[in-house]
UniProtKB/TrEMBL annotation:
<protein>
    <submittedName>
        <fullName>Ribose 5-phosphate isomerase B</fullName>
    </submittedName>
</protein>
<comment type="similarity">
    <text>Belongs to the LacAB/RpiB family.</text>
</comment>
<dbReference type="InterPro" id="IPR051812">
    <property type="entry name" value="SPI_LacAB/RpiB"/>
</dbReference>
<keyword id="KW-0413">Isomerase</keyword>
<dbReference type="InterPro" id="IPR003500">
    <property type="entry name" value="RpiB_LacA_LacB"/>
</dbReference>
<dbReference type="GO" id="GO:0005975">
    <property type="term" value="P:carbohydrate metabolic process"/>
</dbReference>
<dbReference type="Pfam" id="PF02502">
    <property type="entry name" value="LacAB_rpiB"/>
</dbReference>
<dbReference type="InterPro" id="IPR036569">
    <property type="entry name" value="RpiB_LacA_LacB_sf"/>
</dbReference>
<dbReference type="GO" id="GO:0016861">
    <property type="term" value="F:intramolecular oxidoreductase activity, interconverting aldoses and ketoses"/>
</dbReference>
Length: 151
């Protein structure tokens, strides 16, 4: 799978470790930065280009990492077509894809250990959207709100 990944200074260390392992698992990983530690950088500068690439279909899924994962989630969800969520557990990592067609998983580099982050990434990337009518109906409501502001 072609996977995009981005992080600010709070998620840089975790991002670097994840890239290596995801490539070892056979994924084509596109790195949206940061590429060096800069304590003054801002997560939107990396997360927004990742989210735009996901929305355009240039990468199939994305992983966004900041210190807590909250800012990355907030920023990613501002891009039309993105369904991002902060993930802390295996169930949500796959269920978010299966039921809600989540396409960006957000992680907290300062609160998620590497072993768990890798398990979460595997679960997220292995999951597939079920596409059941009730899930599609819900996503249509979200898309309508996103596109027109009306539910």
């Amino acid at each position: 799978m072609r996977v995009g990944i981005a992080a600010d200074h709070g998620g840089l260390e975790l991002k670097v470790k994840l890239i290596e392992e995801l490539r070892n698992l056979g994924h084509d990983v596109v790195d949206f930065g940061a590429f060096e530690y800069d304590p003054t950088d801002d997560y939107p500068d990396f997360v927004i280009p990742l989210a735009q690439a996901v929305a355009r279909g240039e990468v199939e899924r994305g992983i966004a990492v900041c210190g807590s994962g909250v800012g990355a989630s907030v920023a990613a969800n501002k891009v039309a077509g993105v369904r991002a969520s902060l993930i802390h557990d295996i169930f949500s990592a796959h269920q978010g894809v299966e039921d809600d067609d989540m396409n960006i998983m957000c992680l907290g580099g300062r609160v998620t250990c590497y072993a768990l982050a890798l398990d979460l990434a595997r679960s997220f990337l292995e999951a597939r959207f079920k596409g059941e009518p009730r899930f599609r109906r819900r996503l249509e409501k979200v898309a309508r709100l996103e596109n027109t502001g009306a539910r």
